[in-house]
Specification:
globular, 378 residues
Length: 378
C-alpha cells in the first residue's frame, strides 16, 4: 500500500497525542496540558485502528486473489519491522537502570515473550510499560492471519459478521464483568490498568474496526469506492462519534465508558481512518509539513520517548519547572533526537535489509519460473 498523506497525518497525530499525555501524566509538563489527563491515552487507539486496516489489507489481498498466504513471510516481515528497535530499547532498560523512568520493571522474559500486558503489577513495574500496546499488536499479528485464512476458506458474509459481533460483545461483557468485580472490592492495586486497560482481550475493538475497513476495501471495492466519494461526510460522522466517546470517557474508569465507550470510540476513529485513506478528503488531500516524517519514525518515538523524558527531567527538571512552553520544547527536542537516532541507526537499516532479502527472493522466483517455462518448451 502506497503511503497516504491522510494516514500519515493520523499516525503523526496519534503519536504526538500519546507523547503529550505521558509528558503530562508522568513528567510534569504543566497545568497548561491538564486537558490531556482524561483523553491523552486515546492516541493508542488510533494506532490500533490503523494497524488493523493496514495489516488486514496486507493479509487479505492474497487470499482474495486465491493465492496461498505465506505465514512465514508475514511473520518474518513483522519480525524485521518490530524486533530490532524493540530489542535495543529493552537492552537499554535492562542494562542501564538509570535510564528508567521508574525504579521497578517487569521481568525481562515478559517483554521477550510479549506477555507483560497480561499480568503486570503496575504499582511496582512501571518502567517501559508503554510496551503493553506492542504486546497487543504482537498477539494480533499472531492470531489474525490464522483467523483470516480460516474465514476465507469458505467465505461467508454471515460468518464474518458473526465473528465481528462476537468480538465486540465479548469485549463489552468482559470489561463490564471485570469492572463490577474490581470496583466492588477494596484494592490498593491499579486494577483498571492491570485488568481492563492493558490485557489484549480487552483491547480488540480498534484492531477489529481496522480489519472491517480492510475487508470492505479488499472484498467490496465498489462499495469502498462509492463511499469514498462521500469521505468528508464520513469524516464528520467519525468526528461526531469520537466526540461522544470523549464525553463518555470524561470519567475514564467509569462503567459506561469501559463497556460501550471502547467500541464507540473505535468506530469513530475507524470512520476517520476511512476518510484519511482517500486522497480527496479534507485530511487526505494535502501533505502537512513534517507529518510524514513524524509518522515514519513514530514507532521509534514510541519505544524510546520515556527514556528521553526521564533524562530531561533528571538533568533540567528543576530549571524547567513552571515554564510550560520551555518544558514542552525541551521534552520535544529530546524525544525527537533519541527517536530519530533509534530510527535511522537501528530501525531503518533492518528495514532495508528486509527489503533486500525480499527482492532476492522475488528474483529467484522469476528465475525459477523462467527456467520452468524453458524446460516446458524443450
Amino acid at each position: 500500500m502506497h503511503r497516504l498523506p491522510g494516514l500519515d497525518l493520523l499516525r503523526a497525530i496519534a503519536i504526538v497525542w500519546v507523547l503529550l499525555f505521558h509528558a503530562y501524566a508522568l513528567f510534569g509538563l504543566g497545568l497548561d496540558f491538564a486537558w490531556l489527563s482524561n483523553h491523552g491515552w486515546m492516541g493508542v487507539d488510533i494506532f490500533f485502528v490503523l494497524s488493523g486496516f493496514l495489516i488486514g489489507t496486507q493479509v487479505l489481498r492474497p487470499l482474495q486473489r486465491g493465492e496461498r498466504l505465506s505465514f512465514g513471510g508475514f511473520y518474518a516481515r513483522r519480525a524485521w519491522r518490530i524486533l530490532p528497535a524493540f530489542a535495543v530499547v529493552l537492552v537499554l532498560y535492562l542494562g542501564f537502570p538509570a535510564l528508567r523512568e521508574a525504579p521497578g520493571m517487569a521481568p525481562w522474559w515478559k517483554f521477550v515473550t510479549f506477555t507483560m500486558n497480561l499480568s503486570i503489577d503496575y504499582r511496582h513495574e512501571q518502567a517501559f510499560s508503554q510496551a503493553w500496546s506492542l504486546c497487543v499488536e504482537e498477539h494480533f499479528y499472531l492470531i489474525f492471519p490464522l483467523l483470516a485464512w480460516w474465514l476465507t476458506r469458505k467465505p461467508s458474509a454471515g460468518k464474518i459478521v458473526a465473528v465481528c459481533a462476537g468480538v465486540v460483545l465479548l469485549g463489552v461483557v468482559l470489561r463490564g464483568a471485570v469492572w463490577w468485580h474490581d470496583a466492588s472490592i477494596s484494592s490498593s492495586r491499579n486494577w483498571y490498568v492491570e485488568d481492563i486497560y492493558y490485557p489484549s482481550w480487552m483491547r480488540l475493538d480498534g484492531l477489529l474496526m481496522g480489519v472491517v475497513l480492510a475487508v470492505v476495501r479488499v472484498y467490496r471495492p465498489q462499495l469502498w469506492s462509492r463511499w469514498q466519494v462521500r469521505a468528508n461526510v464520513v469524516l464528520l460522522v467519525g468526528i461526531a462519534l469520537s466526540g461522544v466517546a470523549l464525553w463518555l470517557f470524561r470519567d475514564r474508569t467509569g462503567l459506561l465508558a469501559n463497556t460501550v465507550g471502547w467500541p464507540l470510540l473505535s468506530c469513530g476513529f475507524g470512520l476517520v481512518v476511512f476518510a484519511g485513506a482517500d486522497r480527496r478528503s479534507l485530511i487526505g488531500r494535502w501533505k502537512v509539513p513534517g507529518a510524514g516524517w513524524v509518522a515514519a519514525i513514530s514507532y521509534s518515538l514510541y519505544l524510546s520517548h520515556k527514556i528521553a523524558l526521564h533524562l530531561v527531567q533528571v538533568t533540567y527538571g528543576v530549571l524547567l519547572q513552571g515554564h510550560g512552553i520551555w518544558t514542552f520544547a525541551a521534552y520535544a527536542l529530546a524525544i525527537a533526537l533519541l527517536g530519530s537516532a533509534l530510527h535511522y541507526l537501528v530501525e531503518r537499516p533492518f528495514l532495508r535489509q528486509r527489503d533486500r532479502q525480499r527482492d532476492r527472493r522475488l528474483a529467484r522466483g522469476r528465475v525459477a519460473t523462467a527456467n520452468a517455462a524453458q524446460d516446458a518448451v524443450i
